[in-house]
Predict the structure.
Amino acid sequence: MTFLALTPLGATFLAILTAGAIVALYFLKLRHRRVVISSSILWKRVLDDRESHSLWEKLRTIISVLIAVTIALLIAMSLARPEIESLTGKNERIVIVLDTSPTMNTLTQDGRTRWQHAVDRAKGLLNSGGPTTEFRVIDTSGVTASAFTTDRNEVRRLIDQMSAKTEDPKFPKVDDNDSQVYFVSDGVTLHNTPSFVKRISVFESANNVGITAFEIRSIPSMPLSYEAYLEVQNFGRPAEVGIVLSGTGGQRLNKTVKLGTEEIYKDVFSLSQFAGGGVRATIQAKDDALSLDDVAFAYLPIKRKTRTLLVTRGNHFLQTLLQLDNYVELATTDPTNYRESPTIDAYIFDRFAPATPPARPALIIGTPSAPWLKPTMGEVKKPEIATWSESHPVMQFVSVHDVSIERASKIEAGNLTVIAASKQTPLIVASEKPKWVMLTFDLDSSDFPFHVGFPIFVENVLAWFSREQLALKRSPGIVDVPLANAQIRTIDGNIVPSDQQLGRTVFVTSEPGLYSGTQGDQRVHVAVNLANPTFSDVNRSVFKTDKTAAGQRYWLRRELWFYFLVAAAALIAVEWLTYHRRITL
Amino acid sequence: MSTANATVSLFDDEFLKKLEYLNIISKRLFAGQLRAERRTRKRGTGLEFADYRAYVAGDDFRHLDWKAYLRLNRLILKLFEEEEDLPIYFFVDSSQSMNYGSPSKLDYARRVAAALCYIGLANLDRVNVISFADGVKSELPPQRGKGRIFKIFRFLTDINASGETDAKSSFKTYCTETRRRGLAVVISDFFDGHGFEGALDILRHFRHDIFVVHISSHDEIDPGLRGELLLVDAENNTTREITVTPSLLTAYKTEFAKYCEAVESYCGKYQLGYVRTTTDFPFEELILKVFRQGRFLK
């Protein structure tokens, strides 16, 4: 017998102390009620007769003491949490790692999912071990990680609350020093597990055709023109796949293709007929076991001309450029006549800045002096563009590496986003709030207007200012939106619960979908798609159940202390009953 | 306590009237001292014819049977039974154990003794009352005639319960003094550490006609005791710690019944009169019915 709460010496000491205390207490004199009787002759005869003739009478006192000592010892020993390995097993720890990969949603031939089979196997593991066995359940998505507990029901409840996720799985860090680790998985996405892990497979081969890529992209040469790229792959038997692209305005594109095993179908669809809004791509194939990758979403920006007010004393290049832009509705004024107008989507200030920042975004050329702009700290002659951000929306398809600049103003970037800079000064900076982009050089002192990238740059700036953007691409799971305190809605307008993390809004989704995040007049679309060949290839398992992956079962289902307390309670009841019936003394 | 009060407390007048119609029965014939209404072995001047014998000089010729003389020509003398008084000894146990119960056994014994004394006095018997415990504590000299009843009441009232019971020693002390044989009525609970048999044997050996009145309290027959108790013996103050269990209580009741049975068996064996009563038994019923059924009274 071992003790989980005390050392053997401590337990022995506790037992001796308890027994001694009980015996000492037991022999404390009980105050007897004084009763005067006429004569003790008959009582004496009765008592003498009983005491001299009954062995039971002699044993009654000692039996009562023994019962009391036994009760106390049982209680004391239960505090020490004894353990007998043959009855209850040793105090082992079992970690159950459940694979929550998207592929666990794959249907098996019995109509259930691999996940449901995994849950059954995990619950089966809970029936192994003894009452002192502690269990812990962890998933591969990092969402669930329980503490060790002997409460199997609690672990069962936790397992019931878990589900297969749609995000990238990762095998959790588990310590094998004092635990047995079981990994219940289909072995598709997580092949390499630590050697000490006992694997339990729920894999069963299945047919699956999935969308492995879907996105809408603009055509650089044609502003406000978009196309959709779709990639479909067959991971099962050869199948006929029906492809449908549908828009929110009822537009629809259908296509049927035959795909052999492992064959990939790639296609580009023109969206010229589609109105702006969500675009949904769905595929249909017979006996498809995973539905998560049968649908994908993207967002097609709504096409609308940008009402732009150019405030300049005269800039031929800029004026001509904007007038030729089909997606710009241009108005021009000089600085003296400048008035803010609620009908304007964007301003372009050429070597001018108003005293207060405009309510709408602005492109500022040159470094005019204004309280809301960074003050100039001198001039830099012939600055060379040393760095520029290709990822910024305004620099999409724009190259500035060979732009020559005669002179530029020197400013301190501070909290502004530097889009392009020389070693001496930022050359293109952007502010998120209020939204504006500033060139620290004059167009007259640069060859930038002569570059092919300049019209695209202006178009990008105006698009960034007021036009809708393509949807951000995210995978299911924890989705982040680069807007603080944004309200997240589904494509149907339903609000999705969200949290704030580091200036971003995050929400959780387990299925593909199109979401929008709105904060004030800012709106961001997020397309959440599985679109991952790793997840769609549901037959890529190299996983088999280890032969040793079966827990031992023991006779007792609870810890010994529980039975000790039950026995103590039963003995107390017996003692109470026998004492009050005067069977024992 | 005054005499009048003693009387009131022991009996009422109506009850005393009823007692006057009763008569104490003695199974044996004892020699009396004075003329009374009790038959004796003596031949005397009573009314009841007893026998004939031949006339001898000096006999009272008033008792000659002249008809027999005419028929037989012999002088034959008629003999009559002499009617004398009966000595009755009331041994009242006044040990401490008698001071138990409600009413106490001693009170009940007093009333029984008083009633029987009254009956005896009404029949012109000579009534002796002896209070005993571990010895003869007090005794009332022989009383005769109803007029003495108040003296007896007073005596009984003055009896106090004290001391241990030693009936054998008490009876021996009393009987070894010169006493006439008579009817000995022992009123006691018979809780005698020395045994009741020896005491009654003494009375038997002195050839008394014995009548036993065994008084018990209901609390002795069925003690309502439970739990951890310190029993204190009222007579000797000895104590004993016991735990009263139902089985122990049953054993006690059995023992008590056995004890009473033993007293009764003893009396049956030696043809002694025996009446057992409890203090909650109606006293009048005891006197007027039970004693008559027990052939102690007629």
About this structure: The beta strands of chain B are 35-54, 76-84, 87-93, 126-132, 136-143, 183-188, 209-216, 227-233, 239-244, 273-278. The radius of gyration of chain B is 23 Å. The first strand of chain B starts at residue 35 and ends at 54.
